[in-house]
Design brief:
Layout (H helix, E strand, L loop, with lengths): L1 H10 L6 H32 L2 H5 L2 E8 L5 E3 L1 H14 E16 L2 E14 L6 E13 L7 E10 L2
Parallel strand pairs: 1-6
Antiparallel strand pairs: 1-2, 3-4, 4-5, 5-6
Length: about 160
C-alpha cells in the first residue's frame, strides 16, 4: 500500500497542467520574438555603420535572396559581394522597419515586414529612398551571434 501511495505522489508532479504547458510555450515564443527583434536591430545598425561583416554574421551559409525577377543571389559569398558593392557606393539607413507578421514554428521563423531605406551616394549625388516589403525565413542557430540565421529573403519593392 505504501509503495502505491509513493508511486502516486511521485507521479503527480510529473503531470503538467495543460495550461502550464501553454505558458511555457508562450514564454519560449516571447523569448524567440525578442531575440529576432534584437537581431533586426543589430542588422539595421550594421547597415548604418556600413559593417558588412556584422550584417553577414546573421546569415546562413546557404542563404538565398531575391530582389525581383532575374535578381537572385545564391549563397553567402554572393550576398556578401552584393552587399559590399552596395555599401561601397552608398550609405544606407533604415528610416523604418515594421513587422507585419511573425510566425515561429520550432526552429523556423518567417517574418514579413514593410520598410524604408534612405541611400546616400558616397560620391555626392542625390539621396534616394527605397520602400518595400520583405519576407525573411530564419533558422534557429545557437552558434550564430544573432541566435537566428537568415536563410531566405524575398524583397518586394513598393509600387
Amino acid at each position: 500500500m505504501l509503495s502505491m501511495v509513493l508511486a502516486v505522489l511521485l507521479a503527480v508532479p510529473l503531470q503538467l497542467d495543460p495550461n502550464s504547458q501553454g505558458a511555457v510555450a508562450g514564454l519560449r515564443e516571447q523569448a524567440d520574438r525578442s531575440a529576432l527583434e534584437r537581431a533586426g536591430v543589430a542588422i539595421r545598425a550594421a547597415f548604418a555603420r556600413g559593417d558588412v561583416g556584422a550584417v553577414m554574421a546573421c546569415h546562413h551559409p546557404a542563404v538565398e535572396k531575391s530582389f525581383g525577377p532575374g535578381d537572385r543571389l545564391v549563397g553567402k559569398a554572393a550576398v556578401e559581394k552584393n552587399l559590399a558593392d552596395t555599401l561601397a557606393s552608398n550609405r544606407l539607413e533604415f528610416l523604418s522597419s515594421t513587422v507585419e507578421s511573425l510566425m515561429i514554428n520550432g526552429d523556423v521563423a518567417v517574418e514579413q515586414s514593410v520598410f524604408a531605406i534612405r541611400g546616400t551616394p558616397r560620391s555626392g549625388g542625390t539621396a534616394w529612398t527605397f520602400r518595400g516589403r520583405t519576407q525573411v525565413v530564419y533558422l534557429r542557430d545557437p552558434s550564430n551571434p544573432c541566435g537566428w540565421a537568415t536563410i531566405r529573403e524575398l524583397v518586394q519593392p513598393a509600387t
